[in-house]
Amino acid sequence: MSSTSPYHPAILRRHYEQAAADKAAGEKFYKLLADYQDRDALVLGYKAASEAIRARDASMFNKLTYVQDAAKTFEQAVGLDPQNPEIRFLRFSVESNLPAFLGLSKHVEEDKEMLLNAALNHPGTGLDAEAFRTVRGFLVGRGHVSEEEAQRLSKVKE
Question: What is the DSSP string of the chain?
Answer without folding.
Answer: --TTSTT-HHHHHHHHHHHHH-HHHHHHHHHHHHT--S--HHHHHHHHHHHHHHHHHS-HHHHHHHHHHHHHHHHHHHHH-TT-HHHHHHHHHHHTTS-GGG---TTHHHHHHHHHHHHHT-SSSS--HHHHHHHHHHHHHTT-S-HHHHHHHHTS--
